[in-house]
Amino acid sequence: MSDVFSSRLIAEFRANRGALGGRFEGWPLAVLTTTGARTGLRREVLLGWLEIEGNGVVVASANGADRHPAWYHNIRRHPMVTVEAGGDAYQAMAAIPRGAAYERLFAQVVAKAPGYGDYQAKTTREIPVVVLHRIDKRGKGMGDWLVEVHQWFRAELRALREQADDLADGSATALVRPEPDLAHEMRTHCLGFCTALRRHHLGEDSVVFPSLAEQFPALAPAIAQLAGQHQVVARLQDAIRQLVDGFVPGESDPVRLRAELERLAGEVEAHFEFEEQTVVTALNATAAAPPTA
Hints:
By secondary structure, this protein is an alpha+beta fold. The chain has 2 domains: 3-134, Electron Transport, Fmn-binding Protein, Chain A (Pnp Oxidase, Chain A), CATH 2.30.110; 142-286. Helix content is 58%, strand content 14%. The chain has 10 helices and 7 strands. It has a 7-stranded antiparallel beta sheet with strand order 2-1-5-6-7-4-3, sandwiched between helices. A hairpin with a 2-residue loop joins strand 3 (50-52) and strand 4 (55-59). The longest helix has 37 residues, at 179-215. This is Deazaflavin-dependent oxidoreductase, nitroreductase family. InterPro entries: F420H2_quin_Rdtase (IPR004378), Hemerythrin-like (IPR012312), Split_barrel_FMN-bd (IPR012349). Residues 144-282 form the Hemerythrin-like domain.
């Protein structure tokens, strides 16, 4: 399809609120606007459209050609897209299912539109199926929940730093509560905080991050960076745990403990900010927040 012919079809599609005449009459279609993988420019393409399990779905069939279409390479690099279908326009995150999820989805695609099975029979290339997760359709999403979890960790870390300040500065609080009591409180608090943060990061490393990296290839480098940050934070936690476990009032150095907590706070905040910038949108698009008790 030439660029001129495609542009005319897209213009007609928009003028008729998602409908075309002629040989395309009655076809379910959508305009997908992507960002060029190499150019960074907006690219529009008219595609066959399916709705499966409440999400829009498009298929990178290229009529059974042996090479992926250009728009598919674009969404692998830039998963944020604009979708126009049925007279509606919205932003979406374009996910690429793999493995068993792909097999199940492709079977659903072929059941709805058998022609895609014919295209697959023409090529040895595994024809990708792309799920378009609408960003604005949900209420509270998993990404929003993640930010709330981060806020809890931030508050707990602030409280730990205040306890370390009390020990290091000999403040009025330390005069009300003797140093041995403060040290015990901090040891208990630190144990709970470190255990919770480790479990949180373990869940991300084992479940959340692999799923995101698989669905959104463009996020893989950022996710690898986040996993590396988890290791840095874990090493700092180990050092602080050793200081807290061995803290002897009147003998140990509370200033060193406070300095290590400041280092941890800086690393954790940088990690949280980067994580919120890179994965919250994808999490909100693909999963609702877990139920609260």
